[in-house]
Amino acid sequence: AQTVTQSQPEMSVQEAETVTLSCTYDTSESDYYLFWYKQPPSRQMILVIRQEAYKQQNATENRFSVNFQKAAKSFSLKISDSQLGDAAMYFCAYFQGGSEKLVFGKGTKLTVNP
Amino acid sequence: DAGVIQSPRHEVTEMGQEVTLRCKPISGHDYLFWYRQTMMRGLELLIYFNNNVPIDDSGMPEDRFSAKMPNASFSTLKIQPSEPRDSAVYFCASSLRLGGFSTEAFFGQGTRLTVV
């Protein structure tokens, strides 16, 4: 079974600085998707960024970018110019087409200090 | 579209009572998922439906849990009888599968269930 591991239960960053959240996963498949979801205190799960495993280019969405290392099965999220509104739980998730299952990591709580 | 709508937002019930959680997926989406979130176990997939048919219920913890999707616009997750260890946030999510690619899963705001 696929597993997703987020080794950092909590992280903190100063406003306007850069922070990187780690995620590793285990799979024997070659075609899959990876996601980062943000969960603010409102509980809403919000998609931050998506990466298709067949794409070598790292995905970017404004201040959010990923470092996708397929061989190492690593998928880290970099947040640049951190803002107070970025404070939330961040979940890494793996998706395998065909099974239609999203497997989540345990999450990383990000605190942004003013 | 209003997004995935879950009700109630909060539910407090006594042990042994029946609890029903409700979900209205995004119109046109053909996949619906029920997740449970706890501090200890994180986000766990309980069951998912495709075109109103349950596809995988291997995550349903016990026979006390049941889920139905009578039509494309409504699903329920029922716990009978409820126990304190069922206390969690329950999320419903829906998605649309286009050809060989799946779009993202859109989540509702969750139902926080407390069983006392």
Layout of helices and strands:
The complex is a heterodimer of chains A (114) and B (116).
Chain A: E1 3-5, E2 10-14, E3 19-21, E4 24-26, E5 33-39, E6 46-52, E7 60-61, E8 64-69, E9 74-79, E10 88-96, E11 101-104, E12 108-113
Chain B: E1 5-7, E2 10-13, E3 19-24, E4 31-38, E5 42-50, E6 53-56, E7 65-71, E8 74-79, E9 88-95, E10 97-98, E11 101-102, E12 106-107, E13 111-115
Parallel strand pairs in B: 2-13
Antiparallel strand pairs in B: 1-3, 3-8, 4-5, 4-9, 5-6, 7-8, 9-12, 9-13, 10-11
Written overview of the protein:
- Chain A is mostly beta strands and 114 residues long.
- Helix content of chain A is 0%, strand content 54%.
- Chain A has strands at residues 3-5, 10-14, 19-21, 24-26, 33-39, 46-52, 60-61, 64-69, 74-79, 88-96, 101-104, 108-113.
- In chain A, a hairpin with a 4-residue loop joins strand 8 (64-69) and strand 9 (74-79).
- In chain A, 32% of the residues are buried.
- The mean pLDDT of chain A is 93.
- Chain B has 116 residues and is mainly beta.
- Chain B is built from no helices and 13 strands.
- Chain B has strands at 5-7, 10-13, 19-24, 31-38, 42-50, 53-56, 65-71, 74-79, 88-95, 97-98, 101-102, 106-107, 111-115.
- In chain B, the strands form 3 sheets. In chain B, strands 2, 4, 5, 6, 9, 12 and 13 form a 7-stranded mixed sheet that branches. A 4-stranded antiparallel sheet of chain B has the order 1-3-8-7, with no helix packed on it. In chain B, strands 10-11 form a two-stranded antiparallel sheet.
- Chain B is globular.
- Chain B starts with a strand and ends with a strand.
- The model of chain B has no long low-confidence stretch (mean pLDDT 92).
- Chain A binds chain B through residues 33, 35, 42-45, 47, 50, 91, 95, 97, 99-107, and chain B through 31, 33, 42-43, 45, 48, 50, 55-56, 89, 91, 93, 95, 97, 100-102, 104-105, 107, 109-110, 112.
